[in-house]
Design goal:
The chain has about 350 residues and is mostly beta strands. It contains no helices and 28 strands.
Length: about 350
């Protein structure tokens, strides 16, 4: 079952309280251990329950909804990928590659075809991610398509792309060799090349050359990369401490002079007594302006903005944290929404 800390302003987590400043269990008769949290948005969530999709939160002009979507017949076999933004839901049949876009304003579906077909050699779409300005599709062959009208994006890479994540203005991809490439807007150092330049094409983060990366995550304007040895590298905007880098000996959580980084920096983890921990990081996830990590011992550590309690700490006493602090003790999986942290 899922537990969540953070914003519940639209009732998307199926509780009445607007803010969760500690991890709470999601309770709903339809949601069980076999249910999947398919998408976390600002005002709604998408749950896949067997072959059905449910939307919770703001929907059709009302809040605190929990509604089953009426899917087109071509999407009703259960093999679907779904994502969304403030305006649309994007739903792809991952077997047939048939795609529909649901306009959240008109509540109407529109069937969309890939400009260049991916239906060759049993190639299928394996991931779809969206922001308000972008939509990216990743295929089993490692190809990337972009746009609501999907067009093949030539990454100019030799290796196969294993994963792709989106910030608000930047993109990050991971290849099978463990290399990271970024492109998009770099004005807040989120591309990891040591400058503020914008890039139209994926460019390797040279500072991580020789380090095999196995997991990537992107916040609003920051980026995280996890190595095969359980080391975490971070870079980008750090206005609320979302990078989790401890720079001072004192714990002045009200300070606002956090340093942003244009190149990847290795993160160290410290306990409450200031002792550095010798334990690997198992997973990482980013929200808009916060970051959460899962250690091998099952503990969750969070850093950054705590405006809605997304770090798992009291909102009234802790507004932001500038380096990772333990917020939960026993978790198996980790996800982040824009203003929430979810564990399982």
């Amino acid at each position: 079952m899922y537990k969540v800390a953070g914003s519940n302003l639209f009732g998307q987590w199926l509780h009445k309280d607007c803010v969760f400043d500690h991890f709470r269990l999601i309770i709903n008769n339809n949601i069980d251990s076999n249910s999947s949290l398919a998408c976390i948005s600002w005002s709604y969530n998408l749950f896949q329950i067997k072959k059905d999709i449910y939307i919770s939160g703001a929907f059709r002009g009302k809040e605190e909804q929990f509604v089953k979507l009426n899917l087109p017949e071509q999407l009703q076999d259960g093999h679907i990928l779904i994502t969304g933004n403030d305006y649309h839901l994007v739903i792809v049949n991952s077997v047939s590659n048939i795609m529909y876009i649901l306009d959240l304003g008109t509540d109407q579906y529109k069937e969309v075809k890939f400009v260049e077909s991916v239906n060759k050699d049993e190639i299928s779409v394996v991931k779809v991610v969206a922001t308000n300005t972008s939509c990216i599709y990743l295929t089993s062959a490692g190809d990337i398509y972009s746009g609501m009208l999907p067009i093949l994006f030539d990454t100019c890479l030799d290796g196969k792309v294993l994963d792709v994540v989106l910030g608000y203005e930047h993109y990050v991809l991971l290849t099978e060799s463990g290399k990271i490439f970024t492109w998009g807007n770099g004005r807040r150092l989120q591309l990891g090349h040591g400058d503020l330049n914008n890039l139209d094409q994926p460019t390797e983060v040279k500072a991580l050359a020789g380090i095999k990366i196995v997991k990537i995550s992107a916040g609003g304007w920051h980026t995280c990369a996890l190595s095969e040895f359980g080391d975490l590298y971070v870079w980008g905007w750090n206005d609320t401490g979302q990078l989790g880098v401890k720079e001072r000996q004192n714990e002045d959580y009200s300070s606002s002079d956090f340093q942003s980084y244009g190149l990847p920096i290795l993160v160290d983890i410290y306990d409450d007594s200031g002792r550095e921990l010798d334990i690997n990081i198992k997973d990482v996830a980013c929200g808009s302006r916060h970051t959460a990590i899962l250690l091998e011992d099952g503990s969750i550590w969070t850093s950054g903005c705590n405006k809605y309690g997304q770090l798992g700490f009291c909102v009234e006493s802790i507004h932001k944290i500038d380096f990772f602090r333990k917020s939960y003790s026993d978790a198996n999986a980790l996800l982040c929404g824009p203003w929430s942290t979810v564990i399982k």
